[in-house]
């Protein structure tokens, strides 16, 4: 009996060591030993590798297509005898036919397969982007109709390719606009590589159409400016010759009929919308390309979709409307006087003075908005969002065009005569424009990365849902759950009462900047180009060099204003 008691009181050393090591063995679970974990990990790794390989291959395809088309367009510009505009049109027509075949296959085949579109990106393809596609697409279709009519009237001196190319362009624009309107939010889950290649081919085609449109638009502006110089230097001087003005161009003159003049003026007026359409389509297609094969969890889906309301904004719409009305008046005066045979110097003073007054107001508003963002302490939205990343890249990239032209103007003015009235106005305009672009970009990008504001009642409802999910998973006591909800609601209501003026200020600033960017987009889009007319930079850098600089900067600056409107609307809604 005593022996048994002793044996119970003194366990063996081996048993003690085994019992001591037991907790450490059970507390650590080595998942890599299970075959299911290893299998799932390898499948996920293979899926990521396949996705990267597909993106790389489709990107290389687009790069080669863009380089080939750029070589054609550059050869047409520098050696218009060997490579003509008709050759470029034939290449682009082939690319558009291939894109039409893929879009038709996607609409009728890929998107209708089982489990093809399991997820849709709520951030992709907002209504203002899709509306821009339809608006600019409609103007581009009308542009091609005018081109067909103009070429038909002058069929005796124009190639039939100039009628076939716009016809294919109309079909391409209609099909692509319908495709982007219906499927811009798709996260396709089947035929990944084929879909990526189709999207990249369409992006490359739109980029080449934009490059050709920019090139032709620049040539038209060169011709108009040179014709004005010919009129000014006509008396006693030889006519000015330019390599772009061939004998065929001078002989192919529009007859003195009303319908021909309408086609000609309509074509020149609507031409800038084609460049905007190509850039907007490229941005939407890129987001679709990033979303191929993407799986969105339920936590990424927003609970409440913000809506656009004009509630509580007064000063922003009033100041913005005043800026738009004054800008329209300045634009009309500029168009009447600056497009004549002898542009008046006073009209340039009026034009640049308007910008010098408006740009500081926009910069101050953007700086105040950025400060309010820092004081508001709204949480940052750190979820993966290809649309938001693309918006930031486009804002920074498009602003480079206007900033580059401004720096070239600053150098030209400082090196010549900065004390002249007009030169000092252009210098001030260039400096203020650089500062305004930078401050506005910071304000928009900071606002896009903020969590949207939700009213206290909605916030309490969302917190209840989240806490109920947490309760189901972690078995939290209901009494503690209710106390936590009440604490969160009271603290949020308290913070809302202190931060309401900040949100109102953000909405006022955003709306004011929206209207200002609209008028700054309208003026250069419809023909207000003082950089072509004032002659300062052209005399300093030379004709060809300055037009090459403007060829890069002007389309990007127009696109920047339009894209800023969309970003500011997003900031306004989320405020």
Report on the structure:
- It is a multi-pass membrane protein.
- It is found in: Cell membrane.
- GO terms for molecular function: proton channel activity.
- InterPro entries: Otopetrin (IPR004878).
- Residues 7-17 have a biased composition (Basic residues).
- This protein has 575 residues and is an all-alpha fold.
- The protein folds into two domains: 45-233 and 253-296, no CATH class; 305-454 and 500-574, no CATH class.
- It is built from 18 helices and two strands.
- The chain has helices at residues 2-9, 13-27, 35-78, 85-108, 127-153, 161-183, 192-232, 247-251, 258-290, 315-338, 345-376, 386-415, 421-448, 456-474, 478-525, 530-533, 536-541, 543-574; strands at residues 119-120, 186-187.
- The chain has a two-stranded antiparallel ribbon.
- Helix 3 (35-78) packs parallel to helix 7.
- The N and C termini lie far apart (83 Å).
- The model is unreliable at 1-11, 13-33, 235-250, 300-304, 468-477 and 494-499 (pLDDT under 50).
Give a quick precis of the structure.
This protein has helices at 2-9, 13-27, 35-78, 85-108, 127-153, 161-183, 192-232, 247-251, 258-290, 315-338, 345-376, 386-415, 421-448, 456-474, 478-525, 530-533, 536-541, 543-574, and strands at 119-120, 186-187.
